[in-house]
Structures are given as C-alpha cells and as structure tokens.
Amino acid sequence: xxxxxxxxxxxxxxxxxxxxxxxxxxxxxxxxxxxxxxxxxxxxxxxxxxxxxxxxxxxxxxxxxxxxxxxxxxxxxxxxxxxxxxxxxxxxxxxxxxxxxxxxxxxxxxxxxxxxxxxxxxxxxxxxxxxxxxxxxxxxxxxxx
Length: 145
Ligand code: ZNH
What we know:
globular, binds protoporphyrin IX containing ZN, metal-binding, Globin/Proto, Hemoglobin_b, oxygen binding, organic acid binding
C-alpha cells in the first residue's frame, strides 16, 4: 500500500535518523510531555524531573531499542504487521501498555523529526511520515483487537 514515491520519502527521511540520539530525544519528550507514560518504567529508577529523565541511561538505551524496532519497519515497509506481531503481543499481554501511548509516541517522534529536518520536513513529507507512523502504531496495536 505504498507508492514508490512514499517509499523513497520514508527511506530518505529515515536514513537521517540517529537511532540512539533521536530515540533518546523522543522518549524524553514522551515522558516530559505526558508524565503518566512513565508509570510503565518503574524499573528505570529516577525519572522525577526533566534533568533526571534526560540523564537516565536506561531511558537512553530504551529510546534506541524502540527506534531500532521502527528501523526494522522502515526496512520492511511491505511487512510491517508481521514485523511487529511479537512486539504487539508483548505490549498487550505482558507489558499491558495502553495502546493510546503508541500514538503519543508517534506524535513526539514527528516533532523530533521535524526539529531535525527543519525546512526539509515539508507538509508532504510530514504526510508520508504520519502515514508510516500510523501503520507502525496500527501494527503494534494489533494484539489488542
Ligand atoms: Zn515499547 C519494551 C518497541 C512504544 C512501553 N518496546 C519494548 C521493546 C521494544 C519496544 C522493541 C523491547 C522488547 C523486548 O525486550 O523484547 N515500544 C516499541 C515501539 C514503540 C513502543 C516500536 C512505538 C510506538 N513502549 C511504547 C510505549 C510505551 C512502551 C509508548 C509506554 C508508554 N516498551 C514499553 C515497556 C517495555 C517496552 C514498559 C519494557 C521495558 C523494559 O526494559 O522493562
């Protein structure tokens, strides 16, 4: 369900992504903007304020893990649902993460990408990236249906 142009846009945006740095940015933004999302991460230690969140090495590592999974999707655009089948099951049945939070993570990721790309993040690029993220969120939410 992708046009060649959409695939090219996703690939060219995604190759600019630094999984560790941008994953960290996105996860920090999630925790700071939507503080209740921190509740799933009690094992991460001190996330009591912005400085603690940004300096927390577990937050940093987990940001890379999450973007690493999205990286797999970016390289398997025609197979995103299958790519996320196990992860969806883990989030639904083991971690019990409210899938609303996947959408919120998608929103902060769009902001991280927009900040990174600046003027190159045109409305049409945004449209394609929003579609990509929506497909990722949908695939991750699959085990909840
Ligand atoms: Zn998640 C985990 C992905 C979102 C919560 N995750 C995880 C992992 C991965 C992911 C890959 C690992 C797994 C294993 O180990 O096996 N995520 C992901 C993605 C996304 C996400 C791709 C997008 C959207 N998550 C999310 C959110 C939340 C979460 C939003 C909430 C808020 N996760 C989680 C948790 C975990 C995970 C809690 C576990 C962690 C630890 O380490 O413990």
